[in-house]
Write a structure and sequence with these properties.
The two termini are 41 Å apart. Helices cover 7% and strands 39% of the residues. The chain contains 3 helices and 33 strands. By secondary structure, it is mainly β. The protein is globular, with a radius of gyration of 21 Å. The protein binds fe (ii) ion (FE2).
Length: 481
């Protein structure tokens, strides 16, 4: 525990840094074309809605009983467009409740961070905060009948009620003990969820955190790193959790410059992937060198008979090299990485050479060889702010045959992440037996559809399109719960 003197010094330093950052933020260059994360597809919503009467085209599969939920940043009050960073907007959850072939409601709700509560004239939400951060804006998951909004690097999970209102900030019933991640990976064989978690205030370690099927933390194992890498996602195999220690690191220079998201491309930081034993010590992590790049998201991983670990990822050539407002990248591609623990090396192979993001698979196949990956196209000419320029296409990759099916939603119609929902009731089972669900925003008609596709008939008529009469701003991740 820090002494009183140490605490006092830290307080003064933090205040001085904050004051300097605040001054520099006001001097940030004017974005003449506007901030792309506040306009067009990313125009924030200004109110919370509950819509009980939704127009549906097609037939919603009667087997579906639950909620499709997706979350993303949505500032509660107009930020300074010159310094606003997409990753820092207050979280807003969107959800559609489906039962008996009917869409019962659409709702959108801000996650009650202290800033949101104050702005809406409410008392602060219940529950503990971590590191004074409390903005959970990146993913929304269901565990054991409960719903959590989650984020990386600091803020605790926020538990929501079924209708998306905030219950309380809840570090998994006080079992968490630190920061969490936006990407816990379910092991469908054990019901455990595995995450690699980092903390903006700690530069020399990250943690392997495991949740049991009751949303209680059963492991928090430290793994030593250098330089405070930003680790957005992980992957799991039967034996390992994969640690993507890549050249995006905490930057005090960015903090002092007033940047809201203080992580930058760091060409001095070695790129490596760690194979951390799921059980055992973080000190036994096997580090394998890889060519510099950045990975936000993995699709799936598995172990080959020869002991190699194979993981499919979307790899960006660089990330956060220039922009102070969002994720910039020269290119992103779907790649297969083969990790050899014996030679501590990684072979990279391009599976699909088109800009893309948000890869998803049938999670019943976690830790196994998967044949199908679903991802969203990004524009090919977007060198900066790559994620502000989604394409109009959704991809179904057959990585066994090397084929890609392309579903184009048409001009001005932009899909977000699509999630795979297995049809457990189908007589014939298979990896792509089920549905794909996601929001498609139509900029022309200023509306959104929750589109449900038959995953086997990827380019055929949608099973159902649930009409939502406004644009849902571009966001991050969603799930069917
Ligand atoms: Fe993510």
């Amino acid at each position: 525990m820090a002494s009183v003197i140490e605490k006092s010094i830290r307080t003064v330093v933090t205040k001085a840094v904050g004051a300097l950052a605040g001054m520099n933020r006001k001097r940030m260059p004017k974005l003449n074309a506007g901030n792309p994360y506040l306009i067009g597809l990313n125009q924030p919503m200004t109110e919370e809605k509950t819509i009980d009467s939704l127009i549906v085209v097609g037939e919603i599969p009667r087997q579906l009983d639950g909620r499709y939920m997706r979350i993303g940043p949505n500032p509660v009050s107009a930020p300074d467009p010159n310094s606003y960073h997409w990753f820092t907007g207050e979280g807003m959850a969107h959800g559609v409740r489906i039962k008996n072939g009917t869409a019962l409601w659409y709702r959108n709700r801000w996650i009650r961070s202290n800033i949101v509560s104050k702005s809406l004239g409410e008392e602060p939400a219940l529950g503990a905060r971590n590191l004074r951060a409390d903005n959970a804006n990146t993913n929304i998951i269901g565990i054991d009948g409960r719903t959590f909004a989650i984020v990386e690097a600091g803020a605790f999970p926020v538990e929501l009620e079924d209708g998306l209102d905030t219950l309380k900030h809840n570090p998994f019933d006080d079992t968490l003990g630190g920061s969490f991640s936006a990407h816990p990976h379910l092991d469908s064989a054990t019901g455990e969820r595995h995450a690699i978690c980092y903390d903006a205030m700690s530069q020399d370690q990250v943690w392997h955190v495991v949740l049991d099927s009751n949303a209680q933390v059963i492991r928090r194992e430290a793994i030593a790193v250098d330089g405070g890498p930003s680790i957005h996602d992980c992957a799991i195999t039967k034996t390992y959790v994969l640690v993507f220690d890549l050249p995006v690191t905490f930057s005090m220079k960015s903090v002092l410059a007033g940047h809201r998201f203080p992580y930058k491309w760091d060409s001095d930081h070695s790129a490596r992937v760690g194979l951390c034993p799921r059980k055992g010590s973080g000190k036994d992590t096997i580090w394998c060198d890889v060519d510099p790049c950045y990975v936000f998201h993995t699709a799936n991983a598995y172990e080959e008979a020869n002991g190699n670990v194979v993981v499919d990822v979307v790899a960006h050539e660089t990330m956060f090299a220039n922009s102070a407002i969002g994720p910039d990248s020269k290119r992103s591609r779907l790649e297969r990485w083969t990790i050899d623990a014996k030679t501590q090396s990684v072979q990279r192979k391009v599976l699909h050479d088109h800009n893309q993001e948000f890869p998803r698979v049938n999670e019943n196949y976690s830790c196994k060889l998967t044949r199908y990956i679903y991802s969203v196209a990004l524009a090919m000419d977007a060198n900066d702010e790559i994620l502000s320029r989604p394409g109009t296409e959704l991809f179904k990759h057959d990585v066994q045959c090397g084929e890609v099916q392309v579903r184009d939603f048409g001009a001005n119609r932009h899909p977000g992440e699509f999630v795979f929902v297995a049809d457990e009731s189908a007589e014939e089972q298979g990896e792509d037996v089920g549905w794909l669900m996601g929001f498609v925003v139509d900029l022309e008609s200023q509306s959104t559809e929750l589109v449900i596709l038959d995953a086997k008939d990827f380019c055929g008529e949608p099973q159902a399109q649930i009409h939502i009469p406004h644009c849902i701003p571009g966001g991050f991740h969603g799930n069917w719960v």
